């Protein structure tokens, strides 16, 4: 595109994080990074406002747009590389989140404010003519990897009933929310308390922490992060688990589980608190206190037999009425599954 003096269209300033660069309008096409002493650093998964200022002389451009070559393949045609901005007065602003999938290093960003006459927004080609009037400017941006940080920790109760001889029965779900991608955090320990349990010495044989990565809806009792036998009062479970990122906002799930003794007392309460999580962030050990250390609710030791026609899991095995093996062969009209009974 050639310069087009007199149209009044174009760009007078581009701002993006620490980039704040003013240019004469109606330059046409220009490689602005050639004249910049430095380029801006942008962290993966962070959001920044791209602000484009127009001169407002002789009318407004019908397009203010940007393209960023996130995969550095030399074009702007890939999905997620096009950003239409909304003009409000003389200024167009758009918040852009640096995608998790982009690579580190320099990328090219193209910014355009022009009268194009090319149809509705979204139909633009970053390299197509005609550009009737206005400016197209190319900039360099530098993609960096921000260190992973713990954003928050949430805890909730997971069970309402426990049976004698239950093994690896979940008590607490501990969700560690992180942001950032670089230098992953290592979780090294948990401080718990059996507060709320009626008789830990008699009822709890063992406590373990299980890590299920980003799976929080389905628990599988796999190799433990660590364990403590016969917990009673405050107890610590130590181990080592690196938290890996697979998106901009990650949730890493840990579970406190109990093994229940064969002689656990009926209707006794089973409960726990999580008062601290020990982590190593970029070589610096620290402790993090969850927002809620003792979530509402507790479980109960259940020694009842299954009643086969009341729609309730009476014996706390996760199976109701005729789906419970204890009810096989028992006539049960209410649940509507006579073939299983």
Key traits:
1% helix; 341 residues; 6-stranded mixed β-sheet; 23 strands; mainly beta; 1 helix
Commentary on this structure:
The chain is mostly beta strands and 341 residues long. The protein folds into 3 domains: 132 residues, Immunoglobulin-like, CATH 2.60.40.10; 153 residues, Immunoglobulin-like; 38 residues, no CATH class. It is 1% helix and 44% strand. The chain is built from 1 helix and 23 strands. A hairpin with a 2-residue loop joins strand 8 and strand 9. The N terminus and C terminus are likely disordered.
Nutshell version of this structure?
By secondary structure, the chain is mainly β. Helices cover 1% and strands 44% of the residues. The N and C termini lie far apart (80 Å).
Mean pLDDT level: 85
Q: Which CATH class of the largest domain applies here?
A: Mainly Beta
Number of helices: 1
How many domains comprise the coordinates?
3
Task: Briefly note the structural class of the backbone.
Answer: mainly beta
Outline the biggest β-sheet.
Answer: 6 strands, mixed
Strand content: 35-45%
Q: Helix share of residues?
A: under 10%
Oligomeric state, counting identical vs distinct chains: single chain
Rg, nearest Å: 30 Å
Basic shape: elongated
> What distance separates the N and C termini?
80 Å
Number of strands: 23
Q: What is the fold named in CATH at topology level of the largest domain? A: Immunoglobulin-like
Order of helices and strands: EEEEEEEEEEEEEEEHEEEEEEEE
The name of the CATH architecture of the largest domain is Sandwich
């Amino acid at each position: 595109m050639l310069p087009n003096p007199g149209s009044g269209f174009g760009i007078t300033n581009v701002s993006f994080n620490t980039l704040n660069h003013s240019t004469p309008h109606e330059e046409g096409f220009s490689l602005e990074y050639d004249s910049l002493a430095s380029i801006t650093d942008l962290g993966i998964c962070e959001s920044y406002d791209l602000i484009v200022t127009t001169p407002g002389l002789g009318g407004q451009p019908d397009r203010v747009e940007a393209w960023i070559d996130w995969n550095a393949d030399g074009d702007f045609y890939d999905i997620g590389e096009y950003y239409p901005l909304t003009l409000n007065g003389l200024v167009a602003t758009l918040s852009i989140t640096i995608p998790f999938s982009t690579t580190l290093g320099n990328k090219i960003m193209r910014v355009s404010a022009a009268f194009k006459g090319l149809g509705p927004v979204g139909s633009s080609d970053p390299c197509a003519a005609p550009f009737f009037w206005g400016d197209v400017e190319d900039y360099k941006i530098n993609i960096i990897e921000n260190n992973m940080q713990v954003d928050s920790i949430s805890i909730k109760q997971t069970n309402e009933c426990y049976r004698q001889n239950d093994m690896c029965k979940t008590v607490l779900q501990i969700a560690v929310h992180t942001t950032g991608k670089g230098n992953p955090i290592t979780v090294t320990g948990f401080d718990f308390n059996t507060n709320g349990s009626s008789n830990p010495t008699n009822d709890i044989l063992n406590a373990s922490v299980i890590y299920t990565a980003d799976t929080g809806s389905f628990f599988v009792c796999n190799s433990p992060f660590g364990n403590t036998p016969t917990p009673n009062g405050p107890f610590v479970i130590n181990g080592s688990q690196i938290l890996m990122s697979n998106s901009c906002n990650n949730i890493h799930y840990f579970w406190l589980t109990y093994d229940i003794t064969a002689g656990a007392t009926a209707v006794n309460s089973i409960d726990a608190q999580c008062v601290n999580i020990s982590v190593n962030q970029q070589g610096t050990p620290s402790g993090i206190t969850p927002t809620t250390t003792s979530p509402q609710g507790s479980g109960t030791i259940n020694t009842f037999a299954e009643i086969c026609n009341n729609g309730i899991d009476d014996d706390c095995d996760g199976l109701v009425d005729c789906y419970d093996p204890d009810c096989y062969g028992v006539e049960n009209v209410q649940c509507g599954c006579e073939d299983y009974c």
